[in-house]
Amino acid sequence: MQDPLALIIAVAQIAAALALFNGILTTMGQGKIAVAAIEAIARQPEASGSVTTTMFIGLAMAETSGIYGLLIAIILLFANPLIPIYLQSIVP
Amino acid sequence: MDFNNKVLWVLNIFGVEVWITQTILSTWIIMLVLIILAVVVRLTLRKWKQIPSGFQNVVELLVESFDGIVKSAAGEKHMGLGNWFFTVFAFVFFSNIVGIFGLRPPTADWATTFALAMATFILIQVMGIRHRKGKYLKSFFEPSFIFFPLNLIGELARPISLSFRLFGNVLAGMILTSLIYSAPIYLRFAIPAVLHVYFDLFSGIVQTYIFCVLSLTFIGIAATPGNET
Which of A3, A23, A7, A8 is closest to A69 using CA atoms? Predict the structure, then answer.
């Protein structure tokens, strides 16, 4: 273990990649919502307006967890809180 | 890779340092554009005719379709909300598409989106208490008082999730676009245009719409009697 800073950065980058894996399940959920909306519109074309509005709200709700994972990845990559703590600990 | 919020000038007002960042600059530019638009609409208002045409047609179409959104999302009783949310809609829309003109989108800064989401949060509480009085406060203790902490956390998570949704989408688009801009020259041909169209125009319009409709739906649910959530 020559350089602890390199270890912190490497682990943070692996963790950022892992945090983005929740995109798989988020996309699957959004696909299910879109399939259900298309089926509803195919069954009742006259209700397509309200179905589309509800579908967009549902898509936005399902997207939330994906956005959280993305933000965690961005924070780990570009605003990692552990690096300043480490740098402060070695100064004195 | 230059997507940090750069400080352009540091003003010194009575010994207090005020940092003028890129976000503040583009916010003020958007405010200027919106004020000029509003003044133009107000000045031409007296010349408008019964049968619309041209510019009048566009403005009437925008206002009428937004009123339709308010009516379907919040209910006919709360049409007054349309005044505030049309302003939010115009501001967030211009903020999202301003990346096309080379400025930094203000919504890529969490402070902007959190301020808008906090306004929604305060509106939810005020409208709920005004229209449902004690029943709104009682809805925190449904179905039994043990659920009070859960309901409270769910209520407090609303502004956070609203603001993070808009912020995350715009920030991700901006980071991807600026990554392509810092790529080698053969990658910078035509790809940024596609990214700008998708992330700034399409995603910007959809996220603006979702922000307004979700806020209106939350307020409608909180302010309509008989809706126990």
Answer: A23
